[in-house]
Amino acid sequence: MANATVHPEAQLGSGCQLGQNVVIMAGVRLGEQVVVGHNVVIHPDTILGDGVHVGDNSVLGRSPRPASTSTVTEANELPGLKVGAGTTIGSGVVLYSGSRIGDDCLIADQSFVREKCVIGDAVIVGRGVTVENETTIGSYTKIQSQAYITAWTTIEDHVFVAPCVVTTNDNFMGRTAERFKYRKGPTIRQGARVGANTTLLPGVTIGREAFVAAGSVVTRDVPDETLVLGSPARPVRAVPEREFAANQ
Amino acid sequence: MANATVHPEAQLGSGCQLGQNVVIMAGVRLGEQVVVGHNVVIHPDTILGDGVHVGDNSVLGRSPRPASTSTVTEANELPGLKVGAGTTIGSGVVLYSGSRIGDDCLIADQSFVREKCVIGDAVIVGRGVTVENETTIGSYTKIQSQAYITAWTTIEDHVFVAPCVVTTNDNFMGRTAERFKYRKGPTIRQGARVGANTTLLPGVTIGREAFVAAGSVVTRDVPDETLVLGSPARPVRAVPEREFAANQ
Amino acid sequence: MANATVHPEAQLGSGCQLGQNVVIMAGVRLGEQVVVGHNVVIHPDTILGDGVHVGDNSVLGRSPRPASTSTVTEANELPGLKVGAGTTIGSGVVLYSGSRIGDDCLIADQSFVREKCVIGDAVIVGRGVTVENETTIGSYTKIQSQAYITAWTTIEDHVFVAPCVVTTNDNFMGRTAERFKYRKGPTIRQGARVGANTTLLPGVTIGREAFVAAGSVVTRDVPDETLVLGSPARPVRAVPEREFAANQ
Questions:
Q1: Is B57 on the interface with A (CB under 8 A)?
Q2: Residue A106 and residue C176: Cβ atoms within 8 Å?
Q3: pLDDT tens, chain B, 248 aa long
Q4: Contact with chain C for residue A53, Cβ under 8 A
C-alpha cells in the first residue's frame, strides 16, 4: 500500500492498490480490486464500487464551499460521493460529495462534477468538462471534451454533447430577484445530438433525436427529430432515421 | 502538521492546518487559521491572509517561465503572490507570483491566474477559468466557469462574465511588428453583463450596465446601458434599470 | 533528491533535480539537468531530454484507458512518451504515452495531450488546451489557451491557433457505421491563423497563410492567403503579404 495515509475508519476491499502519497479519509469505502493512482485525495464517506480505477492527482468527494457572494447556499450534510462498479476516473479530476455516478462510466482527465448530480451508467464525461450542481445525465450519454454543463440541466439517455458545447440557466445573468423563478438549465431529450461550440439559451428543450449543427445559438425549443442550424438556430430538415440512437 | 515540508524561513500564523504532502517554500507567510489541503505546493514569498482556505493539489505562487518563442518577456524579480483574508481557493488551481487577489474571493477549482494581475475583493473566478497576465478585475465581479480572460484586460466592479466568454487582444494574431502598438484586451465597464460563449474582439469597450446576449461576436464598442446581440453584435434595446447592478 | 520514489530501473542524468513526493516508474530516462517539480508522476518508459523542466502536480506518460463504450480501441504496447531537450512543461499537465514532443516547446499549465500525437519543435500548447489522439502539430506553431484540437487533426508549421478555437471530426456525431469512413479532423496549412472561438467543421482545410476571423464557423475549405469571416465563413479579402509567417 506504499505510503498511503488511510484513516482507520476507512474500508478497503480485497485486491485494492493504492499509489504513493494517497490520502483516504474517514468513512471511505472501496470495493474489491479498486486501483487508486498517486497523489489522490479521497474525502470522507466516498464510496467507490468494485474495479473502479482512479488516475493520479485526482480529488474525490470534496465538499462544496461557495464564496459568501455566491447564490448557491452551502450544502451541508451531503452524503459522500458514490461511484459505481467498473467506472474509470482520469487524472487531475475533481468530483464533489453529494453526487452519484453509475457503473462503467469514463470520467476523463481534468474534468469536474459538482454536488447533487446524478449520472447514469456507461456515461462518458470528457476531458476538462464542467458538470455544475444538481444536474442529471442519463445512461449511455457522451459529454465530449471541454463542454460546459450548467446547474439544473437535464440530459436524458443516449445523448451526444459535442466538444465545447455551452449551456446556460439564467437570462438575467445574476440580476433581479425574479430571476430565481425563471432560472433553469436546458433539457436535452433522448438520442439528441448537440454540435460543437453551440450555445444553448436558458431553459430550452432539445427534442428527442434532434440535431443541432456546430456553432449554432439555440434560443427556442428544438422539435423532436429535427435538424437546426445557425444563430438563432432554425429548423432545416428532418434527421434521417438511420441516425437515430434507437437504430444503432 | 502531518508530513508537510515547511521551509525554516516560512512563517505560519496560529491555528493553521496543513494537509499531507504539502510543500511550503522560503519566505511564505500564512496568516491565522489558514487551511491548506493535501498535495498543495506554495512557492517562495507567497502571502496568504487570515482564514484563507486552499483545496487539494493546488499550486500557488509559481514563477512564469515562458517559452523562448513567446512574446512575453520573462518576468524576473516578481513579488510573491498575495491573497487576501477570507478568500477560498479550490482544488487543482494554479496561481502565479506577482499577482494580488483581494479578500473574500472564490478562486474555484482548476482555475488559473497568471502574473501581474490585480483582482479586487469578493470576486468569483469560476471553475477552469483562465486569467492571463497583467489583467485587472474589480470587486464583486463574477467570472463564470471556463471563461477566457486574455492579457491586458480591464474588468471593473460588479461585472458578470458568463461561462465560456472568450476575449482577445491581438487582431494580427502574432504577425508584424506593429501589432505591439495595437495589442489590447477588452475593457468591461462597471455593472456590464457579457453572455455565455460570446467573443470580444481586441480592444472593445463594453459600456456600463451594458448587456451582451449569449453567443454574440462583439466587434465594436458597446454603449452604456445597451443590449447588443448577434454576429457582429448590434444594439437592440436599452437595458431595464431594474437590472442595473446599482439597483440590486 | 528529496523523498522521491524512483524505480531502480529508471535512469537520471547528471544534475537532475526532483521535487517532493515525485514518483518515477520503471524505464524512465531523464537527460541531464532535468528539473522535476513536486508531486509529479512519471509513468513507465517516459523519456525527457536534457534541460526539460516539469511543473508541479503534472502526470507524464500515462496510458490510455478508454471507457468500454468509447470508439477508441485500447492502445496497448504504446512506446513511452518522449519529450525533446529544452522543453518546458507546466503545472497540472497530463500527457499520454505513445506521443512525441519536440525540443524547446512550452506545454503550458493544465494542458493535455493524448496518445499517438507528434508535436514539432518550438511549439506552444497553451493553458488548458486539449490535443486529442493521433494529431500532428508542426514546428513553431502556437496553440493558444483553451483551444480544443480534435483527434486526427493535422496542423503544419508556423500556424497560429487562437484561444478557444474548436475543431471537430465527425459530422454524424457518433451515429451510423459509415461515419468511420468520413471521420476526419481539420487540416491547417503552414502559416495560417485561426481566430478565437471559431468552429472548424470536420475535414475542412485552412489554406496556407489564410486568416479566419474570430467567432467564425468554417464549413468549407478556406483558400490560401484568404481572409474569411462569419457563419458560415465566407471569403472577404486577401491576407496582406506583410502578415505572412514567411515574412516575419
A1: yes
A2: no
A3: 478 999 999 999 999 999 999 999 999 999 999 999 999 999 999 999 999 999 999 999 999 975 555 555 554 589 999 999 999 999 999 999 999 999 999 999 999 999 999 999 999 999 999 999 999 999 999 999 999 999 999 999 999 999 999 999 999 898 988 888 889 999 999 999 999 999 999 999 999 999 999 999 999 999 999 999 999 999 999 999 999 998 99
A4: yes
Strands B100-101 and C166-167: unpaired
> Each residue of A59-90: pLDDT tens digit?
999 999 755 555 555 545 899 999 999 999 99
> B47-56, B66-75, C170-179, C203-212 — which is least confidently predicted?
B66-75
What is the C-alpha to C-alpha distance for residues B125 and B146, in angstroms, rounded to an integer? Answer: 9
Closest CB from B57, B128, B173 relative to C195? B173
Chains that touch C (3 or more CB pairs under 8 A): A, B
Considering CB atoms only, which of C41, C65, C199 is closest to A197?
C199
**Residues C51, B176: Cα–Cα separation, whole Å:** 31
CB contact A72 to B (< 8 Å): no
Nearest to A2 by CA among A12, A17, A14, A13: A17
Query: pTM for the complete prediction?
Result: 0.96
**Which region, left, alpha or beta, applies to residue C173 given φ > 0 means left and ψ of -120 to 50 means alpha?**
left
* Cβ within 8 Å, pair C70-A242: no
Backbone angles phi, psi at A92, to 5 degrees: 70, 20
Q: Is A80 exposed, middle or buried (0-12, 13-18, 19+ CB in 10 A)?
A: buried
Q: Is C69's CB within 8 Å of A124's CB?
A: yes
Task: Give SS3 for A160.
Answer: strand
Interface check for B65 against chain C (CB to CB < 8 A): the answer is: yes
Contact B201 C214 (CB under 8 A): yes
The Cα of C53 is separated from the nearest Cα of chain B by a number of Å equal to: 10
ipTM, 2 dp: 0.95
Query: Which residues, 6+ apart, have CB-to-CB distance to B150 below 8 Å?
Result: B132, B135, B167, B168, B169, B185, B186, C163
User: DSSP character for B222?
Assistant: B
Residue A214 and residue C57: Cβ atoms within 8 Å?
A: no
Beta strands in C8-147 (DSSP E): 11-12, 17-18, 23-24, 29-30, 35-36, 41-42, 47-48, 53-54, 59-62, 82-83, 88-89, 94-96, 100-101, 106-107, 112-113, 118-119, 124-125, 130-131, 136-137, 142-143
Q: Chain A residues with CB inside 8 Å of B23's CB?
A: none
Q: How far does the CA of residue B27 sit from the closest CA of chain C (Å)?
A: 18
- The x, y and z cell numbers of residue C99, run together, are 506521443
- Chain C positions in Cβ-Cβ contact with residue B59 (cut-off 8 Å): 55-57, 91-92
Q: Which residues pair with C17 in a beta bridge?
A: C35
DSSP B245: G
CB A199 within 8 A of CB A161: no
Nearest residue of chain B to residue A202 (CA atoms): B214
